[in-house]
Amino acid sequence: MTLQQNTDHIQTTHIGSLPRPHALLDLMKAKFTGQPFDEKKFEALLARSVNEVVRKQVDCGIEIVTDGEFSKPGFFTYIQERLEGFEARPGQKMKLFVREVAAFPDYYKEYFKTAMMGGAIVTLAPVVCVGPVKYRGERFVQRDLANVKNAAVATGVPDHHVFLPATAASGVGLNEYYKTDEEYFHALAVELGKEYRAIADAGILVQIDDPFLPDIFFEPDLDSAQMQRRAEIYVEATNTALKGIPPERVRFHTCYGINEGPRLYEAALADIIEYVLKINAGSYSFEAANPRHEHEYHLFERVKVPDGKVLCPGMITHASNIVEHPELIAERILRFANLVGRENVIAAADCGFSSQALYRTEVHETVVWEKFKALRQGADIATKKLWH
After folding, report:
1. How far is CA 258 from CA 25, 79, 176, 262, 323, in A?
2. How confident is the model at residue 76 (pLDDT cuts 50, 70, 90)?
3. What's the rounded Cα separation, in Å, for the pair 91 and 83?
4. Which CATH code fits 22-387?
5. Quick one: angle between helices 39-60 and 22-32, nearest 10?
6. Of 105, 115, 220, 306, whose CB is crowded by the most CB atoms within 10 A?
7. What is the mean pLDDT of the chain?
8. Can you give the pLDDT at residue 33?
9. What's the rounded Cα separation, in Å, for the pair 215 and 234?
10. Element (H, E) at 310
């Protein structure tokens, strides 16, 4: 058995981001918007908050835990904090989900204003590479590692059941400095790899977050060959960044970027699975619980998962406040287990529940914990059926 495989039961995990406490959000907002704030008070509150959120995960039955991404306000601010060579462009409109938004302009105008970006502690703005990329996040990643490992010790969680998320090169920003995409993504990979290795060297799992891979297959200005080449570049960059890290120490997560919406225009799992499985990871996480993608488990009737690799499909969704029934969760687990083996399925969530640091998350914090409890109950039901 490899490190991430099940031995005698279905393991449970999630994708990382969780609703932050409002007191922590207040200090984060001051920090990332240039207002006066007490650094020592922030660090102390962050450590306590991580300790509390890990305990909550354990109490709900989540086995493979993380820090809730409590130190990070979101993808773009996180990048600016940890990588040199980038600047934000607040006045430049972000191009998000172009075809989807064009099809439902009224819906998404309201959605972006109230749900996805409403209540964010910092304004979302495109990030552009304007100089040599250089990693400078050593202090921040060591702080995150210390917080989550201390919390794990306090709750009795072993290191191999702890993970920290880190962004993939594809999610970093636009390039205005390097001559080619290949050169840009290679430079990113080399520098991001320093964060990945720091996490793996600490003895815990590194999760690579790449919600941008599926976007390739719905970008209106790319033909089929260009889509395939761009996906290959993303894979090459991620594997370069992971060089030297044992795959069993790596989780790879991809999703579709939108939480609650029509989702009429987004990739199928069949479009991306060949690229996902090329990543040198021990497990692969993707959406499988929302109604646009739940049927895609049939894909594994013909797609073979490499030996020793694990699937972490979403069994609960981040796109609804409905708490899934444990019996339904068990059915979802069994569908995958019957196709790829009981040892190769970890019950997870579709995506994070607060990928941006928000005062109001789309799924209410109290509902998140009930979803996690249902996930554990469903995994227990599936375990009884799979291990008798």
Report:
1. 22, 20, 27, 9, 19
2. confident
3. 21
4. 3.20.20.210
5. 140
6. 115
7. 94
8. 85
9. 12
10. strand 310-316
Could you tell me the pTM of the whole model?
A: 0.96
| Nearest residue to 320 (alpha-carbon basis) of 296, 284, 292 | 292
C-alpha distances in Å from residue 209, one per residue of 6, 54, 61, 280, 344: 23, 20, 23, 14, 20
Q: pLDDT band for position 235 (50/70/90)?
A: very high
- Residue that is written with structure tokens 């941008």 in the block: 212
Query: Quick one: tokens of 350?
Result: 């579709």
Q: Answer for the pair 161, 64: CB distance below 8 angstroms, yes or no.
A: yes
Question: What strands, in cross-sheet order, belong to the sheet with 174-175?
Answer: 83-88, 127-135, 174-175
CA dist 176 and 316 (Å) reads: 39
Question: For the ranges 200-204, 253-257, 332-336, which has the lowest average pLDDT?
Answer: 253-257
Contact 40, 47 (CB under 8 A): no
> Do residues 171 and 75 make contact, with C-beta atoms less than 8 angstroms apart?
yes
Cα(209)–Cα(166) distance, integer angstroms: 6
E runs forming strands in 174-289:
174-175, 205-209, 250-253, 283-286
